[in-house]
Design goal:
Oligomer: single chain
Number of domains: 2
Order of helices and strands: HEHHEEHHEEEEEEHEHE
Strand content: 15-25%
Keywords: DNA-binding, Endonuclease, Hydrolase, Nuclease
Radius of gyration: 21 Å
GO molecular function, one term: endonuclease activity
CATH class of the largest domain: Alpha Beta
Protein name: Endonuclease NucS
Structural class: alpha+beta
């Protein structure tokens, strides 16, 4: 439900008009945040950033927000901070959820692998994330995925990075969930706390509390020690289960 009479998607087009953007002219993410802060202060910073991604035809993460065919093709993302108007004559075709089911996963593997030097095991993290996003109650009863104006808490943008899952509990408090498919080392706590602080500063209302959850295949002793004095961070280990169903081939006899 829109906070104002117009949805954020429509307000983005008003912003473009106010900016007087011409073909090829770019703007930075902070300009959009400042424009909304001045004209529509109830719209949170994270919501603005997420809509920039949703409306960017070449942003792989837009698939999390189910872009509408022909309606959400407004921007072209130059880099993590710069955007320009989409040029249908020169730019590649927009990315849609129906285009390729593996497109987002592959893009994330490449992007994250280049930045952090991790293995392609990260591909499994997206599977874990998508499963948990649909089954948050296994973490905690009453937990639900954050949603606002078509933006969900899956890969929620926070200052150029992305929270794996942003959820809301039964008290309407935020829960930041960070996933690690391998071992959860103590350095992940710094990442989680940074995300929690960003949500507290830019997305949460004054009465909302912020908690954190780390889910890994194996929680290291260093991480357990690092979190031992933190009452607002919970640790979970996950286990994978596999079942097989035998399929008998059809026996077609040649007459």
């Amino acid at each position: 439900m829109a906070i104002y009479e117009k949805s954020v998607r429509r307000l983005m087009r008003d912003m473009v008009y106010d900016f007087g953007l011409q073909d090829g002219q770019s703007f930075v993410r902070q300009q959009a945040i400042d424009w909304f802060s001045q004209h529509y202060p109830k719209i949170k910073k994270g919501t603005v950033t997420a809509h920039l991604i949703r409306l960017s035809v070449n942003a792989p993460s837009r698939l999390h927000y189910t872009p509408k065919l022909g309606e959400d093709d407004l921007f072209f993302q130059i880099d993590s901070n710069h955007f320009r108007l989409y040029d249908s004559k020169q730019d590649p075709s927009p990315i849609y959820s129906v285009a390729n089911g593996t497109m987002l996963q592959n893009a994330e593997v490449v992007e994250e692998g280049v930045e952090l030097g991790i293995s392609t095991e990260f591909a499994y993290e997206s599977d874990l994330r998508d499963y948990l996003a649909k089954n948050l109650q296994i973490i905690e009863p009453g937990l639900r995925l954050y949603e606002e104006e078509g933006i969900t808490g899956v890969e929620f943008p926070v200052g150029g990075r992305f929270i794996d899952i942003l959820a809301v509990d039964s008290k309407n408090d935020f829960v930041v969930i960070e996933l690690k498919v391998s071992r959860g080392y103590d350095r992940v706590i710094g990442q989680l706390l940074r995300y929690m602080a960003w949500i507290q500063k830019n997305q949460a209302d004054s009465e909302q509390k912020i908690r954190g959850v780390i889910i890994a295949r194996k929680i290291s002793e260093d991480l357990m020690l690092a979190c031992s004095l933190m009452q607002n961070v919970k640790l979970f280990e996950y286990e994978l289960a596999l079942s097989l169903k035998q399929i008998n081939p059809i026996n077609n006899e040649i007459q």
